[in-house]
Amino acid sequence: MKVKGVYEMARIVKRAEERRNEILHKAQELFYKHGYTNTSVNMVIEALGISKGAFYHYFKSKEELLDCLSEEFTQNIITKIETMINNPNLNALEKLNRMYKESGNYKVENIDFIMTITEALYSDNNLLLRYKFNSKSVESVLPLMTSILQQGKDEGVFNIDDPQATARIVLLFGMSIAEYNAKLLLQLKDNPEKIDKMHEHFMIYQKSVERILGAPQESFHAFNIEFFEVFRTAYVSSK
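RE: above sequence
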């Protein structure tokens, strides 16, 4: 019996990964064009000219496609943040502010994905998927936030007892704000003024996080109004 060599096996694995990514990003393209709700698995299959068996070999459902795209998106943000966090020349407050800035910039650069995933996750049919996405996001960012808060505690700028527990509280609080803001985001087409309410919520978040951390007043900056204006402009121009 002929045994496949290491090189041949590596080629097979690579081809499988390439096909998986091909399906994933074709689905992303169709989600942008037609919306998540209006895109079916059959549309992805037909666009790629593959069999149903080939699709279901890699993905169980449309929901799994979205889950994988969301995970990829979160990992890209984390990769950007990690480089900054490992910079020994930045203090804890600088790292915390840049963490939110880097995340915000990436979301602006990928605004189509943000709009698509918000529409999809906040459908009544995707409650479980939304819970999974939010939970994964918090757990993925938790080690990075913990590292920053530990540094801030060591520097004496944050008055906290347990950096990891505090990091989890800050992230979960932010997720709850984002959850409510997502509902406002979906109303922007007809009510562009809702962006002001979204910004107001994050200003409250900023002040609350400063208190939780025992940080100096007006030292923490999550997202500025320009970040939200990008979303208002995108929605108005898409009418």
